[in-house]
Amino acid sequence: MHSRDDEFLPVTGAWLEGDVVGQRQFVSLGPIDLELGGHLPEVTVAFETWGALDPDGSNGVLVLHALTGDSHVNGPAGAGHKTAGWLDGLVGVNGPIDPNQWFAVSSNVLGGCQGTTGPSSIAPDGKPWGSRFPRVTVNDQVRIEKRLAEHLGVKHWATVIGGSMGAMRALEWVVEYPEEVGSAVIVAVGAAATADQIGTQITQMHAITSDPAWNGGDYYDQERGPVSGMGVARRIAHLTYRSESELALRFSNEPQDNEEPLGQGRYAVQSYLDHQADKLAGRFDAGTYVSLTDVMTTWDLGRGRGGVNQVLAGINTPVIIAGIDTDRLYPLYLQQQLADEIPSTVGGLRLISSPFGHDAFLIEREQVFALVAEALQLGVQASR
Fold first, then answer.
1. Average pLDDT in the chain
2. Hey, how many other C-beta atoms are within 10 angstroms of the C-beta on 328?
3. Looking at residue 283, what DSSP letter applies?
4. Catalytic one among 58, 327, 354, 359?
5. Is 39 a catalytic residue?
6. Structure confidence by residue, pLDDT tens digits, 14-44
7. What is the pTM of this model?
8. Is residue 81 annotated as part of the catalytic site, yes or no?
9. CATH topology of domain 197-287
10. pLDDT, tens only, 79-111
11. What per-residue confidence (pLDDT) applies to 324?
12. Catalytically annotated residue among 106, 107, 121, 164
């Protein structure tokens, strides 16, 4: 088989203190007692904003990233930002969120690795949190986002927008703080983690924690991080993010270039997954991958609230629910449940048509942007 050498990959791709700040802003939001019993004595949040907040604090738009996203939803790659915005064009005079009208906010999530407190962050003793970083949940993350809103002076979000893990937080917002959200766009998610998602996700976590370089989560001072394990996790994940039909069309069983897979070469799809693994290692952290994958695994909107059906029936915020017709990670029946059981769903289940599977919420921008524009109008109407 074709051999690969991970020794040139960084120990962590996290943003670390002393790195170029880029467009990030930072705020310290104090301690938090966590849903599952842990505690953080101090939480720092990295965030970016576009536009200006109205005096009454009511023109905010909250954009929520998925597993490997960050605060840089919009704008080019450059100093401090290894990649362009993960939904570039969403904010701008030609995008649905015009900064002349709206105050857009995107923050790196609690447990993240791009400036917000997470496993790679420095703990009070001057060492990375590593294995000591406690388990966090979607509820914990949204409570921190609520504190950020208070810090910024946002009294009311015209809309909150999220896909995948970001959609979990959007749902949490409309349940936990319904009076502060005018509308929501919720794409490619369910109300709770399914057995299939849990199984896939714990397998990814196991791939990382089984890497000898994991060292229980305390690898930041080593010469080598658990990048091999994270690479395996990313390969597994990426297969769930794309559709079988797309992979068949793009790669079939063809070799990469003129390499011979039956000798020392690779299949084209194998090379593609190798590339995805290496690319993530350059901008992400294995500890954060484990922490945030655990967040998605413990996702259950009904926990402590009487169950999913009761919670969904109580949502009154206007919501746009969208699913992707080729999504095999969060199949359409999960969004259909949301659309059917949330009384304030607008227009029934919306379908994003795409060959790209789950990743379509990042790729099919024209379709997603149209939903955002509609939700903003709903948010304006709700605030009147």
1. 96
2. 15
3. T
4. 327
5. no
6. 999 999 999 999 999 999 999 999 999 999 9
7. 0.96
8. no
9. Rna Polymerase Sigma Factor; Chain: A (1.10.1740)
10. 999 999 999 999 999 999 999 999 999 999 999
11. 98
12. 164
What residue ranges do the domains of the chain occupy? 25-193+297-383, 197-287
The stretch 195-209 carries a mean pLDDT of 98
Quick one: residue 41, left, alpha or beta (phi over 0 = left, psi -120 to 50 = alpha)?
Answer: alpha
Residues 192 and 299: beta-carbon distance below 8 Å: yes
Single-letter amino acid code for the residue at 108: N
Locate 137 and state its tokens. 């949940």
**CA gap 371, 383 in Å, rounded:** 18
Examine the pLDDT at 3 and tell me if it is beyond 70.
no
Alpha-carbon distance of 104 to 53, in angstroms, equals 9
- Is 358 an active-site residue? yes
Q: Are 346 and 329 in contact (CB under 8 A)?
A: no
CATH class of 25-193+297-383: alpha beta
DSSP 32-58: EE-TTS-EES--EEEEEEES---TTS-
Residue type present at position 288: T
Task: Supply 145's token pair.
Answer: 């986002």
